[in-house]
Task: structure prediction
Amino acid sequence: MADGKWISYLRVSTDRQGKSGLGIEAQRNGVAEYLNGGNWSLVKEFVEVESGKRTDRPKLDEAIKACRIYGAKLVIAKLDRLSRDAHFLLGLEKAGVDFVAADMPNANRLTVGIMAMVAEEERRMISKRTKDALAAARRRGTKLGGDRGVVPSKKAREMATETLQARANARASDLAPIIRELQAAGKTSLRAIAEGLNEAGILTPRNGQWSAVQVQRVLDRVEAG
Result:
């Protein structure tokens, strides 16, 4: 029987599903059924709409942060649907917050850690098979997609660079309020801020752990903006 404070995290994989509510109501009902009965309160609900190509989970980060702020547990509707998503699973496993999956209530951090490792290994094997297949195709003389020998123009390269810079600046802007909160909490050194971001389960743009150097780069971008 559920008790205490809870934060729910729901996820759909396309904008169309997010706008239509397709999938969200089913997940919301699954959470409601799990919480049914007992002395509990649902503090907040976070809905993530993302494509399969994205690796960041900003709403998950917010949900985890809210769990820490309110001393709440995280509840998700379906862990089995996400069992191949290593980033999601590692985010849960490293977050240090208690969670429950409505469809697998007996799952714990150890379970999720093992599932994440399996998912990562599957991703690695798929990548290796793809590379091996492409290499074999090249040996056979098969023409593959890509630039087909066309060198991008200077303008195209400049536009690509501008796009990357814009993404990095947007990421820095998103992180700025979190860094300010860490500084207000006494984490004023670059190393302390990096530790705070890592403890919050917030990954670097390349999905790694923060270092003092990376924090400085973000601060430089915020100041430049």
Notes: The mean pLDDT is 77. The helical segments are 15-20, 24-35, 58-70, 86-95, 109-139, 154-184, 190-199, 212-224. The longest strand covers residues 40-49.
